[in-house]
Amino acid sequence: MQEPQKIEIRRPLLGNILFILACSAFVAICVFILRLELGDAFERFIAIVGIIFFGGGGLFFVIAKMRKPIVIASSKGITVPYGWGENFVRWKDVERFEIVTQSVRGTKHKHVAIFAPKAKGIVGAGAISQTATEVVTGWEEAPTLLIGLSFSFIKPEVIVGTLQEFHDRYKAARDDGA
After folding, report:
1. Across residues 19-29, what is the average pLDDT?
2. Is 160 helix (H, G, I), strand (E, B) or coil?
3. pLDDT recorded at residue 121
4. Angle 112-73-146 (CA atoms, 0-180°, nearest 5)?
5. How many degrees, rounded to 5, is the angle at CA 86 between CA 84 and CA 87?
6. How far is 133 from 138, CA to CA, in rounded Å?
């Protein structure tokens, strides 16, 4: 049996549906506030912002992210799609993978971190971006790439294990500069 040359890890349908339902619920609450003219002008303004954020954000998710995999591992390296683009890092540049936790207002969010300090030309992986990430998160070292797992229902250990397996298999073959 031939080993896979490429694997795509995608969000399961349940995660996509729950995200869309959550956005729809927030939009409905904001519309309810506006229709009943609840609250003062500031609260109605916040409701309008909520409609734009959750309605627009939900639409962006459906159009730009839902169809795309969370991460693609191939014999060449790792591809992490974002919005309308993607980031790519070669196996020879990858130093390690980690599961990192970011706390946002008491809620903890897990990410898969890819550390590739020698990688060049990766959007969002520049020194300024990494320094900003370190300041905001309090991490001592910012990863080159982060794989967000919100609404994915995928255990980060599964992603790290898959990436590590591909890294171990293809890194030596790619150390020739390919």
Report:
1. 90
2. helix
3. 57
4. 25
5. 150
6. 8
* 97: β partners: 114
Asked if residues 23 and 54 have their Cβ atoms less than 8 Å apart, the reply is yes
Mean pLDDT, rounded, of the chain: 81
More confident call, 81 vs 4: 81
The Cα–Cα gap between 136 and 132 comes to 6
Q: Rounded to 5 degrees, what are φ and ψ at 46? A: -60, -40
Burial of 25 (0-12, 13-18, 19+ CB in 10 A): exposed
Element (H, E) at 77: strand 77-82
Structure tokens at 98: 């980690």
Structure tokens, 48: 């309008």
What is the pTM (predicted TM-score) of this model? Answer: 0.71
Contact (CB, 8 A) for 111 and 148: yes
Cα 28 from chain centre: 26
Query: In degrees rounded to 5, what are phi and psi of residue 71?
Result: -155, 150
Q: Is 93 a residue whose pLDDT tops 50?
A: yes
Adjacent-strand bridge partners of 152: none
Query: Is-contact 90 174, C-beta < 8 A?
Result: yes
Q: What is the DSSP letter of 2?
A: P
Q: How far is CA 133 from CA 70, 84, 102, 137, in A?
A: 20, 22, 11, 6
